[in-house]
């Protein structure tokens, strides 16, 4: 079991949610989350911010923590966008703003 937010393995059981799902507390970031959280729809803006941060060289775990989006979601966004494309874009931007 890993933290839905920071991907840390330092999680402990923390009672049950209202729906009776096992709840966990992350000792790394202090957040509480449930097992197999339902897929939530995040605004496109948030996805763009996440990709922008990743382009700027911010770690995925840090992005997840600061945007309060599960790590797996951030990773899927970045994967969908294509890590290589992002890195290529980064180099291009550096040349432009240089
Ligand atoms: Zn955490």
List keywords for this structure.
about 100 residues; alpha+beta; Arc Repressor Mutant, subunit A; 2 domains; 3-stranded antiparallel sheet; 4 helices; 3 strands; elongated; binds zinc ion
Please provide a written account of the structure.
There is one protein chain. β2 (22-26) and β3 (32-34) form a beta hairpin. It contains 4 helices and 3 strands, in the order βββαααα. The model has no long low-confidence stretch (mean pLDDT 85). α2 packs across α3 (71-81). The longest helix is centred in the C-terminal third of the chain and has 15 residues, at 83-97. By secondary structure, it is of the alpha+beta class. The chain starts with 10 loop residues before the first strand and ends with a helix. It has 2 domains: 1-36; 39-98, Arc Repressor Mutant, subunit A. Bound molecules: zinc ion.
- What is the share of helical residues? 40-55%
Largest pleated sheet: 3 strands, antiparallel
How are helices and strands ordered from N to C?
EEEHHHH
Classified by CATH, the class of the largest domain is Mainly Alpha
**CATH architecture descriptor of the largest domain:** Orthogonal Bundle
- The fraction of residues assigned to DSSP E strands is 5-15%
Rounded to an integer, what's the Rg over CA atoms?
A: 16 Å
* Total E-strand runs: 3
- N- to C-terminal separation? 43 Å
Total count of helical runs of at least 4 residues: 4
Strand order across the largest sheet = 1-2-3
What's the number of domains? Answer: 2
């Amino acid at each position: 079991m890993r933290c839905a937010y920071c991907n840390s393995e330092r999680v402990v059981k923390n009672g049950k949610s209202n729906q009776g799902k096992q709840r966990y507390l992350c000792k790394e970031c202090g957040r509480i989350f449930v097992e197999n959280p339902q897929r939530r729809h995040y605004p496109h803006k948030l996805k763009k911010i996440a990709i922008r941060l990743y382009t700027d060289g911010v770690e995925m775990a840090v992005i997840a923590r600061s945007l309060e989006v599960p790590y797996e979601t951030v990773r899927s966004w970045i994967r969908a966008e294509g890590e290589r494309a992002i890195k290529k874009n980064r180099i291009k931007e550096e040349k432009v703003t240089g």
